[in-house]
Amino acid sequence: MAKSKKVKRIGILTGGGDCPGLNAVIRGVTKPAQDYGMSVFGILDGFEGLVEGRAKELYNEDVSGILAMGGTILGSSNKGDPFRYPVARDKEIEIVDKSQAALRNYEAWNLDALIAIGGDGTMHISHRLGKMGMNIIGVPKTIDNDLDATDLTFGHDSAVYVVSEALDRLHTTASSHHRVIVVEVMGRYAGWIALNGGLAGGADIILIPEIPFSWQKIYDKILQRELAGKKFSLVCVAEGAKSFDGKMVVKSTDIKRSDPIQLGGIGAVVAKNIELNTGRETRVTVLGHLQRGGSPTPYDRILSTKFGAFAVELAANKKFGRMVSLKGSDVKNVKIEDAINKQKLVKPDTQALVVGKAIGISFGE
Ligand code: F6P
Questions:
Q1: Is the Cβ atom of 292 under 6 angstroms away from ligand 1?
Q2: Which of 86, 130, 246, 364 keeps 20 to 30 A from 352, CA to CA?
């Protein structure tokens, strides 16, 4: 786009796994866009729609009433990377480069900019599309909160709320039956959901990928609690947690996905070992996609709205190749290329971890 040309038409897509707050961002983009004289074009099903040419105009009436709605009115996909696009051929899946098709659609739709809402995978793809000539603005989302370039991603607070509520409910039944209940939560390779959700819901043991655990320490904690008169325990385990002599538990692999590995199953392993080695009746609950569905928390609604409105401002000012990011309580922006490949993990001095230890939570160390 020529430097002098005004930004008149922006595309918007939601890529990767969905999370609460996506609709609030779409609304936060679409409503102020008209004040800048921009039209908004919604691309369907993430990058799949960009490759395959599926999109629709977005007007104010389309985004009215969606602030509190979970999911995304545009649809999303974690299988549409234009640079590694899965195509079915003779019952086999072939991975091909469809980035030129994506560029052709971007040009055919007369887009001056594209707002891509997504996690690390989406930002990677966005960076590469930017190098091909698209004017990209990134908005970071993920329940996992594992992007280093922003203090927080929207969706995380809502997921933590679900974990906390689940632990509250499991607390009463665990206590009535004098049981151990293991709750497996999402988060991929980062322990933020387990740490924050476990802290909020009063878990006795929290297991995260960043701290490989000792089986014996888990058994000891459960038996120590019993000696102290607590005949039940709640264990909050991140899907990526592993023992120091074991591996992450992989549920399945799928080459069509941006990250082919799907984690899951550690909760059942932990529950089985606890029952075998402590003799205490143990149950497991896997929260799974409950953490991604439903209405965003008020905090996420506010953050998403700010992110959306800020993204339009970046577009109007032609600050392309930038990603919206939260620094402290202010919304700022960083270069997309500086935001990718930098995972934010729980560190030994992370305050929630330090505080968790101070109040007696075991991390299986
Ligand atoms: O990145 C978000 C996330 O929910 C992870 O916590 C989880 O590992 C993964 O996505 C699940 O992906 P899918 O919805 O494809 O099963």
A1: yes
A2: 246
Among 143, 147, 261, the mutation site with the greatest number of ligand 1 atoms within 8 A of its Cβ is 143
Pocket of ligand 1 contains residue 17 by CB under 6 Å: yes
Top mutation candidate among 254, 292, 344 for ligand 1, by most atoms within 8 Å of CB = 292
Are 207 and 237 in contact, with CB atoms under 8 Å apart?
yes
Query: pTM for this one?
Result: 0.96
Report pLDDT digits (tens) over 315-338.
999 999 999 999 999 999 999 999
pLDDT in tens, 288-299: 999 999 999 999
Is 144 tagged catalytic? yes
| Rounded Cα–Cα distance for residues 357 and 124 (Å) | 36
Q: Name all domains of the chain by residue range, CATH numbers in brackets.
A: 9-154+296-339 (3.40.50.450), 157-292 (3.40.50.460)
Ligand 1 atom nearest to CA at 186: 6
* CA separation for the pair 223, 233 (Å, rounded): 9
Segment 65-121, tens digit of pLDDT:
999 999 999 999 988 999 999 999 888 999 999 999 999 999 999 999 999 999 999
Q: Which residue of the set 144, 146, 204, 300 is catalytic?
A: 144
Ligand 1 pocket residue status of 188, Cβ below 6 Å: yes
With a cut of 70, say whether residue 160 has pLDDT above it.
yes
Q: In degrees to the nearest 10, what's the CA dihedral of 170, 172, 175, 180?
A: 0
Residue nearest to atom 8 of ligand 1 (CA): 188
Range 37-50 average pLDDT: 98
